[in-house]
Amino acid sequence: MNQKVLLITPPFTQLNTPYPATAYLKGFLDHQRIASLQVDLGLEVLLKLFSKAGLKEIFSLAESSSGKFSENSQRIFMLREDYIHIIDEVIRFLQGKNEMFSHLACAGSLIPQASRFNAIDDMDWAFGNMGIRDKARHICTLFLEDLCDFIVENIDSHFGFSRYAERISSSAYTFDPVYEELFVEDTLVIDAQNKILDEYIKKQCPTLVAISVPFPGNLFSALKCGQYIKSAYPHIKIVLGGGYVNTELRSICDARIFEFVDFITLDDGEIPLLNIVENLEGARSQSGLKRTFVKVGEKIEYIENSDSQEFSYKENVAPCYSGLKIDDYISVIDVINPMHRLWSDGFWNKLTMAHGCYWAKCTFCDTSLDYIKRFDPVSAQVLCDKVEALIEQTGKTGFHFIDEAAPPALMIAFAKEVIRRGLIISWWTNIRFDKTFTYDVCRLLRASGCIAVSGGLEVASQRILKLINKGVSVESVAEACHNLTSTGILTHAYLMYGFPTQTAQETIDSLEVVRQLFENNILHSGFWHRFAMTVHSPVGQNPEKYNVKCKKTGLNPFANNDIEHVDVKGAQHELFSEGLKKSLYNYMHDVGFDLPLQQWFNFKIPPTTIAPEYIYSSLNSVEEEELKENAKIIWLGRMPEISYYSKKKKGKDVQMAEITINTKDAGLKLNVNRRVGDWVMQVVQKSSVVAGKELTLKQLKESFLDENLGDFLIYCESNNFNQLREAGLLIL
């Protein structure tokens, strides 16, 4: 084909790793033999701004403006030469290119400090004497955040490290605010964006530009890209897609957006993009496009007439990171918390275990949309093939699986395949805190490199969890978290308040449960968000059922997702926001557990009805798991060694065996009857995960009985068998 596609992530998403959309699309286009290249404009704009030349321009603009500096901005401006002097080394350090800079950063005399440094009293407690690099990374993060505050206050109020002009794009029921802002004089950020974009277009000569808009904070900069291309390169076609488009613009009827783009696609972008390329090539008519909005005359027309089959993640097509400046991403630590840092620290290759959600029943969720409802899991073998391909591409061995909820069965199969192939990776993903996550399952996941999981606890109230149709209880979530953390896997919970009919009592009780989860060290991190009623969720599609009244009816001309509503029976949810966030911040720093909940709120709250030892008691009353005959038996470790000896028992020689098991952190010797020892060695050999083997519990029992070794149930309760399980014999 003669077409060439430029894939763009507009400012801003993450600092530490690329947003995955363009890499997914490039992998697909490469597979189709369509020429393409990709650029993370967010990263490149940030690197341009946060450089000596960039800061000189920022301070010069601030000096020439007519505004008066705040006390904090005045301090930063007075220290501008120090900021300019050190900025390049700070960035190099955060890129991992100058680790020795950490000693200087921690010395206390090099990094200028403004208001972001006001809350660093706990530095020594958090990092100790030896956590120099993490401490330096946090200090350098605060340094950048001070500069960000200065830019927002004096140069560009739209600016943010992970978003741009988010305020005017969030809940943009009409296009007017965005449209009007598009014709305001370009800011420093947009000017930098356009210059970088122009360089890529001149060098690469694309015929089609595809812009991904994952969040509201990317829409404005995406449309500014389109505006610039339409002005400077009117022959180039532009397509808009991504998560924001998929959820917000499904009913768009304001044709003015087509002043900046030519196509808008919905849901997975691979086939719609392929069809557009075919259309530009003359091989497909416009009427044969897939899930695509176009402007026909003065109206918007939605086209869904393609005969092309949906692209499946099951196909062995890995994302492609070529063209992205992988070594230039910036790792920061904004919150001193080992779990929370994963979102901002380190380069993560992004993959997906399964398209959609295997549960897809939560009443607050967009269950009517394709990205949730169409469940399509990848095989463990294909997933590991993609892992190996990305390691070869990027040289990085960290993986973030960006599932809505990774299927436990696939996680187990993937973990086995990782171990079988001898891959050494670190990985984390989003899950449901499912009862499947037993202690042994978590041990397997940890052995394969799983370091963390995030999952939705939402409202820690049995009644609300039932209304949400979450399919879990507070106790089952606590048990799953306990099993995960007991094996060294970090946990993060998405927390919700303000679900329809939720009372003040339920909100406070939910907070008390969260407090206890942290206090018992089975939850490491969390995030409170207020319930949002969307048009794509069961609540939004049937508000009366949930005692909710919509403030308005009918569709908006631009964005249609969040529905303004009144909770007829619930509490005044907005009152709780600050207190919930403040308490959580403290719990995430391992402080404040002994403070009464009233301490976090500036209004009277009801006392909690949750018992002080509720979570602790719940964990200690968990019934022992029932072993099912079809349960899988696998051996995690290397082959043990066996030696034989005899001992006198009641005057007779008894043949014995000593099994020596060396795990990575300990050694174990089992002294058993010789016949039992031989049976154990056979079991280990036949269930070795390294060799890709496994038994069922039924087979294990039958082999035990075939050898006439006694009562199998009694053996399963023996100290001998328990030691074997602790050493690496897992029952899944």
TrEMBL record:
What residue stretches are annotated with the Radical SAM core domain? Answer: 343-569
Q: Which GO terms describe its cellular component?
A: cytosol
Cofactor needs: [4Fe-4S] cluster
Coiled coil: which residue ranges? none
The source's superkingdom equals: Bacteria
Q: Would I find Ribosomal protein among this entry's keywords? A: no
Q: Name one GO molecular function term.
A: iron-sulfur cluster binding
**UniProt keyword annotation of Transport present:** no
| PANTHER family, sorted | ANAEROBIC MAGNESIUM-PROTOPORPHYRIN IX MONOMETHYL ESTER CYCLASE-RELATED, BLL1977 PROTEIN
**Record's protein name:** Radical SAM protein
